[in-house]
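SAMPLE LOG
Freezer: B-3
Tube label: C17
Construct: single chain, 372 aa
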Amino acid sequence: MSPLEAIVALNMLPKIGPVRVQRLLDAFHTPQAILGAPVDRLTRVEGIGPETARIIHSWQDHADPAAEINEARERGISIITRDSESYPNPLLQTYDPPLLLYVWGELKPTDKHAIGIVGSRRATTYGRNTTKKLSYQIAAAGFTIISGLARGIDTTAHEAAIAAAGRTIAVIGSGLGKLYPPENFALAEKIASGHGAVVSEFPLSTAPDKQTFPMRNRIVAAWSRALLVTECPAWSGSLITANLAAEYGKPIFAVPGPIDKPTSAGCNQLIRDGATLVSDSSHVLDDLGQLPFSRPTPTTDPADPAEPEQPAPASLSADESTILDALAPGEATVDLVIERSGLPAHIVTTTLLKLEIKHRVIALPGFRYAAR
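STRUCTURE (predicted):
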C-alpha cells in the first residue's frame, strides 16, 4: 500500500479526524503502520479508545482507498496531502490541518495571498451589490478570493472574482462527488476550468451535514490572510468563520449596514467588537499592502449606477450582446434569459455580472435583470 492510499483510507474512516490521526502518526510514524497496528497498541495512543481502535484495525470494512483514488482521477480531481508542495501552507499552521485536500482545478503559489469573503445565504440586493464591488476590486488587485460556494454572498464573491479575471477558491462542506448546493455546479465547473479550484477535505461521496460546514469554515478562516464579512444576521455561520479567523490572528473586516435591518446585524456587531469597517476595497488593500504582481485596482464602482459607463456596442462580446438582446424589452429572470439566449447557466450568470459592472444591466430583486 502506498502512503497516499494509506492516508486516504485514514481520512475515510468515521469518528477519527485529523487531530487523532496526527497523534497516531506521532506514535507510529507512517499511515501504513497505523493501519497495520493491533488494537492493543492503538489504544495506547491518547484519544484512541477501543471503538476507534477497532475501526482502524478493520479499516477495510470502511474504506477502499484504491477505488477512491481512481474515481478522483476519473473526475479530474487531484488529491494532495500535507507533504505535497501545493498544500496550502497557512493550513499547516493550524491545530487540526486537513489530512488531505481533494482539488478540482489548480492551486497556485499566489493563492497564499487569499482574502476570505463570506456572508449570508439569504443575501439582499444591498449585500450582493456590495460584495460584487469589493470582490471584483480585490480580485483585480491580485488577491485570490476564497469562499464557501454557498448560496448568496459566497456565490456573488466567486462570480465577481471570475468577472475580474482573477482567481477564486471555493471550499465546500461536502465531498466533490456530492457538490453542494447542486445549483452551483456550473459555477464550480467555471472556477475549476481556469479560474481557481474547488476544494474539499471530505471523501468524494460525503454528503453535507451540520458537522461538515463548521469544518469547511475553519479552512476558509485559516487559509485567508484576512476575512471580510459583507452581510450577515446576528446568528450566522459567517460569524463562526470570523471568530475562527480572529483566533488564528487574521484581520477581520466587515461592511456596515442599516441599523434597522436584521440582515446586517452580524456585521454591525463585528464592527462594535473591533472589526475594521469597510466601505471601499482600499480599506482592505491598504491594510494588507500591495502585491508585487498585482494590477491597478479598478476605481469604477460596479454596484453604483451613479457613474455610468457606456461602452460602444463593438466593445461587447458575443455573449454579452446575446444576453442584452434576451433582456429586451423590459426585465427578465435569470431562467428566462437562459431560455431566450440558449447559453449555459454559468455563462449567463457570469456575463450578467460583467454587464452589471459595465453598467449595461441592472440587478433587480428576485434574481431579475433589466437592460439600461
